[in-house]
Amino acid sequence: MAGSYDDRDGKIWMDGQLIEWRDANVHILTHAMHYASSVFEGERCYNGKIYKSRQHSERLINSGKLIDFDIPYTVDEIEAAKRAALDANGLNDAYVRAVAWRGAGEDMGVASARNPVRMAVAVWEWGNYYGDAKMKGAKLDIAKWKRPSPETAPSQAKAAGLYMIATMSKHAAEAKGCSDAMMFDYRGYVAEATGANIFFVKNGEVHTPTPDAFLNGLTRQTVIEMLKERGVTVHERHIMPEELESFEQCWLTGTAAEVTPVGQIGDYNFEVGALTREISESYEKLVRA
Fold it and tell me: 45 near 36, Cβ under 8 Å?
């Protein structure tokens, strides 16, 4: 599938029914457009099966609650909506985007309790998120923006508003010829990339930031389980910026990113080593099993 995302053939599930792709629109006074009252999930379907589908649906509902709205669908109903969208578009291998938001209604200020909560599911074919970096290793900038304190934003919600600084950081990175940017958190610890969690390797052991100021990704959790099953020691801890120089390997994890090697972060270089390749290949096999 190519072309603008608003001008394609196909069907999108929206508010309980399948509609033509080009008709999946919202009013200009939709609350989410003005005040970021929106949550979403990014999922991948492999060979007709969405990996960890129910966990994604459960997280979507929880994200809504964390930003103070209830999605008017159960997990089972969300699962059925995703299946309907895939079937309607004839896709077995696809990216799945479920999104819920406060729509247009009686409220147009910051408060929006009287506005309806709406939901949609779109699916499309999507290759490697980082292109050929999946094989060669991504080049990352270091973002000037930091992940906020959990006291200032609901860091465990996959909420649209939390991605504003991610978009800005990725645009700045791309302008420098990078694939993405690594972000620190509000304390100055290494946090994550703009839409993916991060792992490092040193002396055969893996180090990954504690997800106390950013989303604990489902792919992140899967990879940690894979490493532990292999007997690899995993340290979930706060990582200082000056430690980057001592790490030998690095990779990113996420539903879109899957497992993507990192070759460079700022002035620091990493090898695309054996453990990185093994985890990447093993993840590819796991999601298609």
Answer: no
Amino acid sitting at position 135? M
Mean pLDDT, the chain, rounded, equals: 96
**138 and 102 housed in the same domain:** no
Same domain membership, residue 171 and residue 241:
yes
Note the pLDDT tens digit of each residue in 212-221: 999 999 999 9
The pTM assigned to this predicted structure is: 0.95
- State whether 90 and 45 are in the same domain: yes
Give yes or no: residues 270 and 149 share one domain.
yes
Whole-angstrom Cα distance, residue 72 to residue 56? 16
> Where residue 73 sits, what CATH number does that domain have?
3.30.470.10
Question: Where in the sequence is the domain holding 282, given as residue range(s)?
Answer: 133-287
DSSP secondary structure string, 71-87?
Answer: -SS-HHHHHHHHHHHHH
Name the domain boundary from 124, 150, 177: 124
Regarding whether 249 and 107 lie in a shared domain, the answer is no
Same domain, 163 and 273: yes
Buried b (16+ CB within 10 A) or exposed e, 39-48: bbbbbbbeee
Whether 95 and 36 map to the same domain: the answer is yes
Beta-carbon contacts of residue 25 (< 8 Å; ≥ 6 apart): none
pLDDT tens-place string over residues 14-71: 999 999 999 999 999 999 999 999 999 999 999 999 999 999 999 999 999 999 999 9
pLDDT at 1 over 60: no
List the structure tokens of 257.
Answer: 């990113």
188 and 118 share one domain: no
186-195 mean pLDDT:
98
Residue owning tokens 């993507």: 260
Burial (CB count <10 Å: 0-12, 13-18, 19+), residue 69: buried
pLDDT tens, position by position, 78-91: 999 999 999 999 99
